[in-house]
Specification:
It is a single chain. This protein is of the alpha/beta class. The protein has 12 helices and 10 strands. Strands 4-3-1-2-9-10 form a 6-stranded parallel beta sheet, with helices on both faces. Helix 11 links the parallel strand 9 (about 235-240) and strand 10. Helix 4 packs across helix 6 and helix 4 crosses helix 10 (about 210-225). The longest helix is centred in the first third of the chain and has 17 residues, at about 45-65. It is globular, with a radius of gyration of 17 Å. The relative contact order is 0.21. Bound molecules: D-glutamic acid (DGL). D-glutamic acid binds near residues 14, 40 and 120.
């Protein structure tokens, strides 16, 4: 038994896709969420800058006394690869491995698509692992840099016309590829799940990186007897590096619960 909180980290709202699932499957856990909203998007930055920012955020979570850091960010998970968490005093998990495994269990025809940030697609992280585990797999990746700003500005409802047009353009990259499974490899993208599902005529297995990461975290904690088992509902504390109002409003809309505990941090103090 381990009553320390789980740390979850992303550049912004995206990691809430992991929090939503954690609240469902591990309701007794306390969670400390860090959204580096003052420096997003990460996905169009260089690997060096992404590493620098991510290390600062992970150090912050470590200092909050968490038992596990769930890097609920496809970009950070991809840029660090197998080095994720090296130098960290607590275990760190990323989204790539659980998400790839879920996609491989879902596909019937061995043709998978990935939508993710530019940095993630350029890293080849999902593709390399998927092909290692499934030689002969056909894999098509597409960077969708406009999705993060759309989500962060609340353009994610299934009937949002602006988001629909952008998504339609991006998804045309899969025309003729005959994919049956599409990885939403940036944790912001599952907020567009219903829109993408509708646009693809409900025909694809959509794999939600945030959700799969949360399931991976549960498995990790269970196997090590590290669940909190506090016998009451856990709390979530949120930290962001820019103004809290937009984050709180959209977070409430997405999580379906009030974000009572949101604190703004000074980026300079993270350094
Ligand atoms: N949500 C993040 C990801 O999973 C990062 C998005 C961004 O800041 O570009 O890739």
């Amino acid at each position: 038994m381990d009553k320390r909180p789980i740390g979850v980290f992303d550049s912004g709202l995206g990691g809430l896709t992991a929090v939503r699932e954690l609240r469902r499957i591990l309701p007794e856990e306390n969670i400390v969420y860090f959204g580096d909203t003052g420096r997003l998007p990460y996905g169009s930055r260089s690997p060096e800058v992404i590493r620098e920012y991510a290390l600062e955020c992970m150090r912050f979570l470590e200092n909050q006394g968490v038992k596990l850091i769930l890097v609920a960010c496809g970009t950070v998970s991809s840029v660090f690869g197998s080095e994720l968490g090296s130098g960290c005093a607590v275990p760190c998990m990323g989204v790539v491995e659980p998400t790839v495994k879920a996609a491989l269990s879902a596909t019937k025809n061995g043709k998978i698509g990935l939508i993710a940030t530019a940095a993630t697609v350029a890293s080849g992280s999902y593709e390399k692992l998927a092909k290692e585990l499934f030689p002969g797999l056909e894999f098509t990746g597409k960077a969708c840099p406009l999705f993060v700003p759309l989500v962060e500005n609340g353009y994610f409802a299934a009937d949002n016309e602006v988001a629909r047009l952008v998504a339609k353009d991006y998804l045309s990259a899969f025309d003729g590829k005959n994919i049956d499974t599409l990885i939403l490899g940036c944790t912001h993208y599952p907020l567009l799940y219903n829109l993408i599902d509708r646009l693809t005529d409900y025909k694809l297995n959509l794999i939600d990186a945030g959700k799969e990461a949360a399931l991976g975290a549960k498995d990790f904690l269970e196997k090590r007897d590290m669940l909190s088992e506090r016998g009451e509902k856990g709390e979530v504390r949120f930290f962001v590096t820019d103004k809290v109002d937009g984050f709180s409003r959209l977070g409430r809309e997405f999580l379906g619960e009030e974000l009572e505990n949101v604190t703004r941090l000074d980026i300079e103090k993270l350094k």
